Amino acid sequence: MSSRTLKGLNMSTKTLCLPLLLIILFNHTLLSKGSSHMLEGGKHNRKEIPIKTITVHDGDIYDCMKLHNQYRMKDPLIKRKIQLRENSSLQGTITTTNSSDHESASSKKLRKTRSLGNESCPPGSFPVLKATKAGPLNFSAIEDFSSLRARSFLRSKTTKPLVDNDASVREYAQASVKGRYGGAEGTLSVWRPTLEHNSEMSLSQIWVLSETSNDLSMSLEAGWMVNPSLYGDTRTRFFIFTTNDEYNTWLYNDNRRSQPPNNRLQFTRVNNDMPFGMRLDCSTIDGDNTEIEIVIKQDEDQDWGLWVDETMIGYWPKSNYRARRANKVIWGGEVVNRRTRGRHTSTQMGNGHFSSEPIGRVAYISNMALYDLHLNRYDAPQAINVDADDPDCYDLRYWQSDEEYGQHITFGGPGYDRVQCP
């Protein structure tokens, strides 16, 4: 462009450079978006470049991020936790013969090693799921997940009807207790429920909460889910979730948070085992019961630690929450019912069987336990609250102390039935 043209347009070199610079920066952001991990530092988000990207045998793609580059790594207490824990490993596969007095089908209980196999992240780093064989993760599905839970929470706290044009509902089958707790645990049998529509979801999990009649200031959650909207497949995957304000502000796994500008929710890794979003092996009817043991409890610093199969994976810092203790614990299952065919969904909860089926043919959470404020472990009480939104679709039973399974629940159901669950 000639100087005469520039003069005619009344433009200067300076005004041309600024838009050009913005375009270059925008394109650079797009190119680097897929290979970086969002970490929050100070008031600004910054991107950390993975030290390695690996593809495992099932097609999942993970970025390896440095443990010591996580948020708040300058804190010496956090460095100490990582140094103590990053070399810990699981015990391997645990196989026990079922010898319970509780009615059960012939089965074994298995806990598989939770690692990426031959492909793994280097020491001092941890894996973050970037994409599955179907493609990049669709995080808008988690925004929908949280929105539905927020509406569900509002419905539970008001007698007034909510104006809501979305026919989607969350349906639960849960056992719960209220008191003052430093944590909780349970062992979840892992299944692969079938879904009627890919926009629906089915899960089994533990909730550790602090709530009042009109406020949810802390929810710590961990379990397994089938969520094709997020992952692009119908495989069963491990997840964690937290919120500190009725599901408006949230953090899913360790790499996706809601958008409010003051969202400083964090989960800090201390170990590279058990990647979030990892595909889990599942139980089979009248075959092996594959299990995952989950413990959520405070540590000596009053941060909320997460243990999986006796290995500490990391923790939610206490600074995430206004609450310093939990006052409610829930164990159970949940589905999203979209009513896409104008009726109840046939999406399964658990493995699609009702709670009356014997162990080996039904989903369960066993060895349910609580921690007091001094972090002493004790079994869940004999009296417990049991609730199912629609027991003709999905139900739950609570079983008192058992030699093999301790205090435990069985739960699930097939969903739609023309007569019982229309």
Task: Report the sheet with the most strands, covering strand number, pairing sense and barrel closure.
Answer: 11 strands, mixed
Radius of gyration: 23 Å
Number of helices: 5
**Amino-to-carboxy terminus distance:** 71 Å
Instruction: Name the poorly predicted regions.
Output: 1-46, 86-102
The SSE string, one letter per element, is: HHEEEEHEEEEHEEEEHEEEEEEEEEEEEE
Shape: globular
Indicate the mean pLDDT: 82
Hey, roughly how much beta strand do the residues contain? 35-45%
Secondary structure: number of strands: 25
Briefly note the structural class of the backbone.
mainly beta
Helix content: 10-25%
Describe the structure.
The protein is 14% helix and 36% strand. By secondary structure, it is mainly beta. Residues 1-46 and 86-102 have low confidence and may be disordered. The radius of gyration is 23 Å and the shape is globular. Strands 5, 6, 10, 16, 17, 18, 19, 21, 22, 24 and 25 form an eleven-stranded mixed beta sheet that branches. Strands 15-14-13-12-11-20-9-23 form an eight-stranded antiparallel beta sheet. A four-stranded antiparallel beta sheet has the order 3-4-7-8, with no helix packed on it. It contains five helices and 25 strands.
Task: Name its key features.
about 425 residues; mainly beta; 11-stranded mixed sheet; 5 helices; disordered N terminus
Write a short abstract of this structure:
It contains 5 helices and 25 strands.
Write the layout of secondary structure elements.
Elements lengths: L2 H6 L4 H21 L3 E5 L2 E5 L3 E4 L5 E6 L9 H10 L8 E4 L10 E4 L13 E8 L2 E2 L3 H17 L12 E13 L1 E7 L12 E10 L4 E11 L1 H4 L5 E7 L6 E3 L3 E2 L10 E2 L19 E10 L5 E5 L2 E6 L9 E12 L25 E9 L5 E3 L5 E4 L6 E5 L8 E5 L10
Parallel strand pairs: 6-17
Antiparallel strand pairs: 1-2, 3-4, 4-7, 5-6, 7-8, 9-20, 9-23, 10-17, 10-21, 11-12, 11-20, 12-13, 13-14, 14-15, 16-19, 17-18, 18-19, 21-22, 21-25, 24-25
